[in-house]
Specification:
Helices cover about 70% and strands about 0% of the residues. It is mostly helical and about 300 residues long. A two-stranded antiparallel sheet has the order 1-2. The N terminus is likely disordered.
């Protein structure tokens, strides 16, 4: 009411009575804090502190064990019995090569599938079945992907143990990540953007290409970089498909492209092999390199997302 009076069943309260009613002990601003709320808040902070301590503990231990192994020779040479060297440069190259090749295969398929499901497909059993299938794929153990990739791509398709076999297998593994992340990013674009563009006479594909995709780009990039993190950390599937050869390709001529048809071990594969040989110093050195790569990917995700966020 304009006169700040409160209507009750027995009549009208005066201004003073109304003020005392809303500012008295029944006000939500003056309620006593319950002990249970304080305890639960303390548990939440304790859980957060444990998570941070676990992360710092793992990073600190890997840093302590792996830092003595990180030398210029370790990072820039390849294993050689004649020269007596043991380096991971070939594994670093194979890891980058695997990332690029996998993204070239899976990114168009994942983003295209998300655009179809979000912008073109009408809701129904088919869309729900595709979404359910995508979510199911994301929960399959990586060792099963490796077995499938070895049999289908390696044996049936005749690719054998090769980086291309590993890239095709990893493409299937990270397809759900990119597809679902892109779907959610597209759904965050306001519907008024779509209706406004179509109302001005734009075609649907022109609207998607010039308005929807740029607006959803931060989420799409996040999904792609999360996929890169999955590629970097994968070992079981690649052990069955890409092999463990740590030789550098010939960079002259078509050697860089022919390298895709040859076996190539990534950093995770080399770390696994070092652990099986009880070479813990090299294993922790590789682990430290992987940890730095993962942290770099997370920082890159935040930076690119912030740069591409058109709403800020």
């Amino acid at each position: 009411m304009n006169n700040f009076a409160t209507q009750t069943g027995d009549g009208v309260l005066s201004k003073e009575t109304h003020y005392e009613f809303v500012s008295g002990s029944s006000s939500i601003y003056q309620k006593k804090v319950r002990i249970a709320d304080t305890v639960l808040l303390g548990v939440i902070y304790l859980c957060a502190a444990v998570s941070v301590c676990l992360l710092l503990g793992i990073m600190g231990y890997v840093l302590y064990r792996g830092l003595p192994s990180i030398t210029w020779e370790f990072l820039t040479t390849v294993p050689s019995a004649l020269k007596g060297t043991f380096g991971i440069f070939a594994n670093i190259f194979n890891t980058v090569y695997m990332i690029v090749l996998t993204l070239l295969i899976v990114t168009p398929i994942g983003i295209g599938s998300a655009i179809y499901l979000t912008e073109y497909a009408k809701g129904g059993k088919l869309v729900r079945m595709i979404e359910f299938t995508t979510e199911t794929l994301s929960g399959i153990p990586s060792i099963i992907y490796g077995l499938f990739g070895m049999v289908f791509f390696g044996v049936v398709c005749g690719l054998g143990f090769s980086i291309l076999t590993g890239a095709l297998t990893l493409a299937i593994m990270i397809l759900p990540i990119i597809t679902r992340t892109t779907q959610e990013a597209l759904k965050t674009v306001p519907e008024s953007y779509r209706s406004g563009a179509l109302g001005m006479g734009a075609t649907k594909w022109y609207m998607i290409r010039t308005i929807i995709l740029p607006s959803a780009m931060p989420g799409i990039v996040t999904g792609v970089i999360l996929g890169i993190g999955r590629i970097v950390g994968e070992s079981a599937a690649l052990l069955f498909t890409a092999g463990s050869v740590n030789m550098m390709p010939k960079l002259a001529g078509m050697g860089i492209f022919e390298h895709a048809l040859k076996s190539g071990g990534t950093l995770t594969i080399q770390m696994y092999l070092s652990m099986t040989k009880a070479d813990y110093a090299s294993a922790f050195g590789i682990a430290l390199v992987l940890l730095i790569v993962v942290l770099g990917i997370n920082l890159l995700t935040k930076y690119i997302t912030k740069k591409l966020d058109t709403n800020k």
